[in-house]
Amino acid sequence: MIALLGAAAVYGLSAGLSPGPLLALVISQSIRYGVREGAKAALAPLVTDLPIILLCVMVLKPLADSRFVLGLISMAGGLFVLYIASGCLRTTRLDLIDRGEAPQSLGKGAAVNALNPHPYLFWLTVGGPAVLGAWAESPARAVAFVAVFSACIVGSKVLVAFVAGRSGRLLTGKGYGIVMRVLGLALLVFALLLLRDGISLTGLLAHS
């Protein structure tokens, strides 16, 4: 259970702090209109992620009995997490750009997140299989994974909104780069574990 929740926390924090369209919106709203508007944009995953999760789980559920297909999905998830990890490891600073966004922050944030392919890719290749595996052991485990992930992704973006609204310079300092590199290394470990599980499920090494 601890490993499952630890993975959910790392995935959520990395998604919350990695540069992307939603984070840019959170920052710009915080700078222009204050912490409250930035925090509203940060809540977008609470609106958009549940439908995305349900959709991805419905797509994956019929495939749950095929070890080979699950192995391929796990390998794809590992490659996707490697991609995220490389982005975290390369990030040394965060550019604060005022993009001129108007208020209605929650609606704009939900639109940005719903149109971003990353949540769909994550829940199809990483999060969805984790939820299905946890559900098979206990529904509470699956709910806990989603809850911890959601708390971390939203909490980290709310923190960014607070920092951007109060003192945006902190986001361009060395501290942000260090945090991203630590998250990148943790993601690298999870990516390798996913790739290992994928290879094991597909039996590729056994047939080589």
List keywords for this structure.
single chain, 208 residues, mainly alpha, globular
Described by the principal axes of the CA atoms, the overall outline is globular
Overall structural class, as computed from helix and strand content, comes to mainly alpha
Strand content: under 5%
Name the helix and strand elements from N-terminus to C-terminus, one letter apiece.
Answer: HHHHHHHHH
Mean pLDDT: 81
- What level of helicity do the residues show? over 70%
Strands, helices and their partners?
Elements lengths: L1 H16 L3 H13 L1 H8 L1 H17 L6 H24 L14 H10 L2 H21 L1 H29 L6 H29 L6
Helix pairs in contact: 1-8, 1-9, 2-3, 2-6, 2-8, 3-6, 3-8, 4-6, 4-7, 5-7, 5-9, 7-8
General description of the model:
This protein has 208 residues and is mainly alpha-helical. The chain contains 9 helices and no strands. Helix 4 (44-60) packs across helix 7 and helix 7 (117-137) packs antiparallel against helix 8 (139-167). Residues 98-102 have low confidence and may be disordered.
Summarize the structure.
The protein has helices at 2-17, 21-33, 35-42, 44-60, 67-90, 105-114, 117-137, 139-167, 174-202. With 208 residues, the protein is mostly helical.
